[in-house]
Amino acid sequence: MLSRYSALSVTMYAMLFGAILLFPAALVEGLPQSLARIDWKLAALILFLGIFGGALGYLFWTFALARLTPALRRGLSEREPNDGNSTY
């Protein structure tokens, strides 16, 4: 997929579909009532986390994966973060 589409397109569609799939759960959890209580500082923080923590991080990850060989990509996707409790 990354050979046919740009990293930006893949990121955009992944974020869009993720937001669409989570929207019904947000409505059940009380999204309309929560949105009524948001001030401008909280809205700016939410946008900052969404743009820099979510979208840009995912964009950089997708951009890097598009430039790796299939063997390196597979090895990278199978690695788990080392939390210090591993036995190997």
Task: Tag the structure with descriptive keywords.
88 residues; mainly alpha; 4 helices; elongated
Describe this structure in words.
With 88 residues, this protein is mostly helical. It has a domain at 7-67. It is 73% helix and 0% strand. It is built from four helices and no strands. Helix 1 (7-28) packs across helix 3. The radius of gyration is 18 Å and the shape is elongated. The two termini are 33 Å apart.
Topology:
Elements: H1 7-28, H2 31-36, H3 40-66, H4 70-78
Give the class from helix and strand content and strand pairing.
mainly alpha
Rounded to an integer in angstroms, the radius of gyration calculated over CA atoms is 18 Å
Mean pLDDT across residues: 81
How does the overall form come out from the CA principal axes?
Answer: elongated
List how many beta strands DSSP finds: 0
Strand content: under 5%
Main beta sheet: strand number and arrangement? none
Low-confidence stretches: none
Oligomer: single chain
What level of helicity do the residues show? Answer: over 70%
Report the order of strands and helices: HHHH
The termini sit apart by 33 Å
Number of helices: 4
Quick overview:
This protein is mainly α and 88 residues long. 73% of the residues lie in helices and 0% in strands. The chain is elongated.
